[in-house]
Amino acid sequence: MTTLRLRPEGPADTGSVRRVLAGAFARPDVSTPPEVVLVDELRGTEAWLPELAMVVEHGGEVVGYALLTRVRVRPDRGGDAPALALGPVGVAPHRQRVGHGTAVVQAALDAATELGEQTVVVLGAPAFYRRFGFGPAVDLGLTSPWSGLGEPWQALVLPPSTSGEAPPPRGEVLFPAPWSKV
Asked: Which helix (H) or strand (E) holds 127?
């Protein structure tokens, strides 16, 4: 029986992660999907949180990836608050639809919860992300350049890591510069 192994991405995984994302997001009109470039560029920014770049291995092969990076929420008043953006999430085409995407996303969200993170935003398929508790970001008072897309703009409040935690931030979600290319 082949087992799954979920773990943070290591330095030796860069090529495997690129292959997974290139396969998952392949399009005939581009040689390198923007999701691959996004991850490459995020690695060199303050938004990169190495413990929240998760891979899933099947039989020793990296077959899935989920990335959480730092974003900021700018409220109408007061200072920016930290939050996370989920994405890209990808699974190698030959291992899709067998639960690897669900497993790696859950591992990333669990790791974020353990680190005391509070809010995660994602732009993606509601049918997939709702299984983790994501809902319309507008319901949490969060806006972004993607707010106009409606249901795919989603957010999740993670379980509190400590009692007495402040309510989740509301306002405009500010993404690091590499996101502007997606």
From this structure: helix 126-129
Structure tokens at 88: 């890209």
Cross-strand pairs, 7 = 55
- Strand locations in the chain (E): 4-8, 53-58, 61-74, 81-91, 119-123, 135-136, 142-143, 153-157, 171-174
Q: Please name each of the domains of the chain with its CATH number.
A: 4-181 (3.40.630.30)
Would you give the DSSP letter of residue 167? P
Partners of 5 in the β-ladder = 57
**Token pair listed for 68:** 């959480």
HSE-up of 107 (CA within 13 Å, CB side)? 24
Closest CA to 87 of 176, 27, 5: 176
Amino acid letter, residue 51? E
Cα 4 to its chain centre, rounded Å, is 20
Cβ atoms of residues 67 and 182 within 8 Å: no
Q: What is the mean pLDDT of residues 106-126?
A: 96
| Rg (alpha carbons) of the chain, rounded to whole number | 16
39-87-173 Cα angle (round to 5): 105
pLDDT in tens, 16-41: 999 999 999 999 999 999 999 999 99
Q: What angle do CA 103, 107, 110 make, to 5 degrees?
A: 135
